[in-house]
Design goal:
Elements lengths: L3 E2 L4 E2 L2 E4 L6 E6 L7 E6 L4 E7 L4 E8 L4 E8 L5 E8 L4 E8 L4 E10 L5 E10 L4 E10 L5 E10 L4 E10 L7 E10 L5 E10 L5 E10 L2 H8 L5 H13 L9 H14 L1
Parallel strand pairs: 1-4, 3-5, 4-6, 5-7, 6-8, 7-9, 8-10, 9-11, 10-12, 11-13, 12-14, 13-15, 14-16, 15-17, 16-18
Antiparallel strand pairs: 2-3
Length: 273
């Protein structure tokens, strides 16, 4: 897929997307942009598919979405990142979708803070992460409903292996007078080894009665039955673990539109296992 470099939209310190009849396919590459603090605006009725690759070790990105704008983000963490912070502010009927595949090495903190500021704004955020060796990874994804009829969905999927540490935390907050809003948060981590440290902490804060809210969290080791089934059919224990991991994390791959990126994700999963 041919994508336009984000640098084409840079003006006065801001990456600005105007109203367009067509969906813009754009790539943000840390190899092209030196800034580690970025502001990206989507003006009214703009529609963008943004692929993010090779961010700097410490990066902050602020998204501002105007009325009726739509932003879809596909992000692959493959290098040794340290800290990535993302904030997003959504106005009336604005929509943001984020799909984050993390197969980086080492210590990593990803903080996401999304604000649904006006009626009809909607956010969907999905993360898949693998923590192995001595990785220490923390994902803090929070979503705040400031207005009525707003919608927020968070899904986190992770695998813990070796001495890896993995934390999924976040707050879904529905403020007073944000009636008829819906918020859901889900976190699932599968652990392979006894020394893996995995924690899932979804939190709901509800200040309004007429809403829908739910959260779920599960952390558990790989099923003995699954391992027995696979090893009894000739697979080694390592091959069985790799196959189960692929099945668990592979759904994030389908969210990426670029064939080369999808292949890179599959390769990274295999290498990190």
């Amino acid at each position: 897929m041919d994508r336009i470099s984000l640098t084409k939209f840079y003006e006065n310190g801001v990456f600005n997307f105007l109203d367009s009849k067509d969906v813009l396919d754009v790539v943000l590459s840390g190899e092209e942009i030196d800034e580690t603090s970025l502001e990206i605006r989507a003006e009214e009725n703009a529609s963008i598919n943004l692929l993010i690759l090779n961010l700097k070790e410490n990066t902050k990105i602020n998204f501002n979405l105007s009325k009726n704008s739509k932003l879809r983000i596909e992000c692959l963490f493959s290098n040794e990142h340290k800290f990535v912070e993302i904030t997003a502010n959504l106005m009336e009927n604005a929509e943001i979708e984020g799909f984050f595949a993390d197969f980086s090495k080492g210590d990593f903190v990803n903080k996401v803070d999304i604000h649904l500021l006006e009626r009809g704004s909607k956010a969907r955020w999905k993360v898949a992460s693998l923590s192995s060796k001595k990785d220490n990874k923390k994902f803090d994804i929070s979503l705040c409903h400031h207005y009525a009829n707003t919608y927020g969905y968070i899904d986190n999927y992770g695998v813990g292996k070796d001495d890896g540490k993995l934390l999924f935390s976040g707050i879904s907050h529905i403020l007073k007078n944000s009636n008829n809003s819906i918020t859901r948060q889900n976190a699932k981590i599968m652990v392979f080894d006894r020394y893996s440290n995995a924690i899932a902490k979804p939190i709901l804060k509800i200040d309004e009665n007429e809403i829908e809210a739910s959260h779920a969290a599960s952390v558990g080791k790989i099923s003995d039955d699954e391992m027995f089934y696979l090893t009894s059919r000739g697979l080694s224990e390592e091959m069985a673990k790799e196959l189960i991991t692929l099945g668990y994390l592979k759904p994030i791959v389908s969210e990426f539109k670029d064939d080369d990126v999808r292949e890179s994700i599959l390769k990274l999963i295999e290498e990190r296992m």
